[in-house]
Amino acid sequence: MIHLPRFLPSLQPHRQEPTPATPPPEPPKPARVTPRDVNTFQPSVPTVASSLRTEQLGDGRSNCLEKAVALARPGDSILLMRDAKDDVGHALVRRPDGSVVDPNHPTVRYETLGQWQAMHPRYGQPVSVPAVQVKQVLSTPPGEKRDALIRQMGLTGVANRQVADEEPRWVTPSDNREEKAVNVRAAPSASGETPIKMKVYPGDKLQVLGEEGDWLKVQAQNGEQGWVYEPNMVEVEAPPAP
């Protein structure tokens, strides 16, 4: 009889286990985005500037100059403002009593031009032109006839002052108030029964979506919407595009 050493391996054949199939890779999980990271605004479209020399009524771009002409009444004047940022300004309507109406927000009346400028500090150097003259100029087709009429009326010095088609308007709480925070409400009312949706502070930029009397409907950069009292706000430049 032959004795095999204990350390020899077993003589039985080794059973090979099947190799498990490799599971498919998991799809990447979407990144979590907080509401503050969401930006619902698109980069602003470049504006098309016009002037007394080039503006065409009814051309499909109803900018502030055309709106001002439509809004003006007998005895009114058109104020051509210059923008300190890019030299493309804005047109306003001034009534005989000195009050001012912004044609982009015709339901809001400003007692004086200074009151409007306090909320729009980038605009200055106003030039006043009788509204009847502006209407006459813009009713004449651009070209030699309009240029001759501009010279005849003595408007050569302001004929090239440009205004732009309307851009989105942005506001922020004024830092000249004792109470820095401004309530964004669910409705255009300061009643205690109107819910306060959030508070904003100077430097928080809100896009204006509409208006009702002295109230502005606004949207914050996180998408939240509500109403703010316009006298508490000042106009600011748009935030940089994402």
State the major sheet.
5 strands, antiparallel
Dominant shape: elongated
Query: How many β strands by DSSP?
Result: 14
Give the percentage of residues in beta strands: 25-35%
Give the fraction of residues assigned to helices.
10-25%
**Helical stretch count?**
4
Spatial order of strands in the largest sheet: 5-4-3-2-6
Structural class: alpha+beta
Low-confidence stretches: 7-11, 27-47
Mean pLDDT equals: 78
How do the helices and strands follow one another from N- to C-terminus?
A: EHEEEEHEHHEEEEEEEE
Gap from first CA to last CA: 89 Å
Rg of Cα set: 32 Å
Q: How does this structure look, described?
A:
The structure is a single chain. The chain has 242 residues and is an alpha+beta fold. 13% of the residues lie in helices and 26% in strands. The protein contains 4 helices and 14 strands. The protein has helices at residues 64-71, 113-119, 131-138, 144-152; strands at residues 49-50, 77-83, 90-94, 100-101, 109-110, 123-130, 163-164, 170-173, 182-185, 196-200, 206-212, 215-219, 225-229, 233-236. The protein has a 5-stranded antiparallel β-sheet. A hairpin with a 7-residue loop joins strand 4 (100-101) and strand 5 (109-110). The protein is elongated and about 60 Å long. Residues 7-11 and 27-47 have low confidence and may be disordered.
